[in-house]
Amino acid sequence: MLTFKKTTLALALAGATLATTAQAAEVEVLHWWTSGGEARAANVLKELMEAEGYGWQDFAVAGGGGETAMTVLKSRAMSGNPPSAAQIKGPEIQEWGELGLLGDLNEVAEAEGWDELLPEVVADIMRYDGQYVAVPVNVHRVNWLWANPAVLEAAGVEMPTTLDEMFAAGEAIREAGYVPLAHGGQSWQDATVFESVLLGGQGSEFYQQALVELDPEALGGEQMIAALEDFKRTRELMDDGMSGRDWNIATAMVIEGTAGMQLMGDWAKGEFTAAGLTAGEDYLCAAAPGTEDAFTFNIDSLAMFRVTDEGEHDAQQALARLVLEPTFQEAFNLAKGSIPARPDLDMSEFDSCAQQSLADFQRTADEGGLVPSMAHGMAVRADVQGAIFDVVTNYFNDANMPAEEAAQRMVRAAQAAAF
Predict the structure, then answer these.
(1) Mean pLDDT rounded to a whole number for the chain
(2) DSSP for 340-351?
(3) Model-level pTM?
(4) d(Cα 164, Cα 188) in Å, to the nearest integer?
(5) DSSP codes of every residue in 182-244
């Protein structure tokens, strides 16, 4: 994820023009929607922009967690040549806002009634210093478990609802000749599994204390140690070829029936959809074991950079407006596997997984189980997240590191990164 010292970047930008090289009435959009389902979803927005007479310069940077894209964005911004819009989310929106680089979307937000349209938890993330600077594309649920029903049937197991049930099911799936849990050995994927396991075993209140508030007692305490031990156990359910595997390749293992399950956000559903599969029949979805009363959210959003060209500014405003219109919200989220950022849309065209996701989002928002994803840049700043990633991945891949040591490293990492 993007990590930089604000003062360094601000000095590098001092005196640099923010006018971009994009032509008038054209937007250059940096994003990392590059897998099959994601690329198909992003193309919907491109077509809508072109239908209104605007140009779209696609700046896609591969990498499911967005780390590479953020490195490229930092380089472009430091040279005084940021793109028109970039896929930025969570606390990183605040970081870029503090540098004075983001454009003002208040005019389109007021005209389109964003304050009334968006849930407050979503709208608040899109604002910097009370002003809209970004537009939400969707809401992802991260704490999902996906499964191939044919593999579960062959192993004689049901969809697990607790961590203990998941470990027991995994043993049966392996005995039946399949990989129990598809996974890609990348730091953001390790962190995705970690936060879902922590949430499933320790609950949303502890999750909030540890991974959002960074409470040292929570990070280093007995509950964290138990969560880390549960997390390490999931490695026993994975195959030896997981190192470096992209998330969508792991999803393909479930689709093809070589693996039984995958812990991954609902962007995985875009891959099932692209493969022509039907939810509830060809594949199964459920809240990650132990997390049915919680919802870990990841909101994709496009932030607009400040530009001087009037035509490009108009194109940015059109882009922001189109992102929240029903046509794009429905088409994009049907393709991507997520749910609309605006809760007023007709969900009849969405599958049972998406309908459950929206219902759970609204319910957990009322009941206190709605929490931001640490693994996907919604909970803490990028430097803190990167420090936690390092601890999680090092612990996961070191058979000799005890959970107690990893918990203490977590405390030190969070404290060091915070300053």
Answers:
(1) 91
(2) -SSTTS--TTS-
(3) 0.86
(4) 24
(5) E--BSHHHHHHHHHHHHHHHHHHHHHIIIIIS--HHHHHSHHHHHHHHHHHHHGGGS-GGGBT
